[in-house]
Design a protein that fits this description.
This protein is of the alpha/beta class. Helix content is 42%, strand content 20%. It is built from 14 helices and 13 strands.
Length: 327
């Protein structure tokens, strides 16, 4: 299969649409939806994006069309996927599923309005001039993902206080990897923990990381914030459960899928807000006039079923503090 054919397939095989469908598409406003994640793990997030659009009267298939492009955790695909959406002259380009999507969108166009969802600081990373006055063609939503990694480490230490050596699964290709490592080093030094890093950015490296983790005989595992890991969450969860390894994750979707516990922002709210801003732009608003929003709702979720599966028992304080307890 040629690379162009592969990328078209990722985007929904638009080239294979009937001519009638293409004519219908051209008559509607078109949104380019660029994600570093996978459609298989993002259905609930796309639904939240649609809810945001609907708040201002936009419904996919009715008065707006959405062209989806998924990198499936392979960030090297994002620049070409973004360029393809720009070439299709979409009305708004939405970059979600990791900071790399936002940057790929920004690099692809200086004229098409961009709505992003980022875990990093959009000001220091050059996406906007300021949060209140973006002053350009991009605005969006920030979510605290990498910044919360030290909090997750503290929760893991509280959960397994006798384990002074903590395994950390990290993607070396993530844009936020430097900030995540910096946060972890500072927190580990304060608590008195030793961190053992395991790097994975693709399936083969993830398998190698799993083998290395088993050989280390660790007492617990912290999974770093990264969209690639989101695409592989069921594999990661199954590995932790099979090896009776207490593990903490960044989003509630891990806990609801069978992971032991998660602490992070409400990601569906971020996608809903992206939908809201996309609708506003379709109605004439300029990104420069839309302040960057920040999701401040945090979710602490524990899974008692997962705990039972690995022979683990949560301290009573955890159940009392959790926003959701899965039984």
């Amino acid at each position: 299969m040629e690379r162009r054919d592969f990328l078209t397939l990722l985007g929904g095989a638009a080239a294979a649409w009937p001519l009638a469908a293409s004519a219908e598409l051209s008559a509607k406003r078109v949104i380019g939806f660029l994600s570093g994640r996978s459609p298989d793990d993002s259905g609930h997030l796309v639904a939240a994006f649609h809810r945001g659009l609907a708040e201002d009267g936009f419904v996919e298939g009715n008065n707006v069309a959405v062209e989806y492009r998924w990198a499936l955790g392979n960030y090297s695909l994002l620049p070409e996927l973004a360029a393809e959406l720009v070439k299709r002259r979409v009305d708004v380009l939405v970059g979600v599923g990791g900071d790399a999507s936002a940057h790929a969108a920004k690099a692809a166009t200086s004229t098409i309005p961009i709505v992003f969802d980022m875990g990093g600081d959009p000001v220091t990373e050059g996406m906007v001039a300021s949060l209140n006055r973006p002053d350009g063609n991009a605005t969006g939503v920030t979510v605290l993902t990498s910044q919360l990694i030290s909090k997750r480490l503290g929760l893991l230490h509280e959960l397994v206080p006798k384990s002074v050596i903590v395994g950390v699964l990290i993607n070396p290709n993530a844009r936020s990897v430097a900030s995540q490592l910096r946060e972890l080093d500072e927190a580990a030094g304060t608590i008195g923990l030793q961190l053992v890093m395991f790097k994975a950015s693709n399936d083969a490296e993830l398998d190698a990381a799993f083998s290395a983790i088993v050989q280390q005989s660790l007492g617990c595992l912290l999974v770093g914030a990264d969209p690639y890991f989101d695409t592989q969450r069921r594999r990661i969860i199954a590995f932790a459960l099979n090896n009776r390894l207490p593990a903490i994750y960044q989003f509630r979707e891990y806990a609801t899928a069978g992971g032991l516990l998660s602490y992070g922002v409400d990601l569906t709210e971020a996608y809903r807000q992206c939908g809201v801003y996309t609708a506003k732009i379709l109605k004439g608003a300029k990104p420069a006039d839309l302040p960057v929003q920040q999701v401040v709702k945090f979710e602490f979720v524990i899974n008692l079923k997962a705990a039972k599966a690995i022979g683990f028992e949560f301290p009573p304080t955890f159940s009392a503090r959790a926003d959701e307890v899965i039984e």
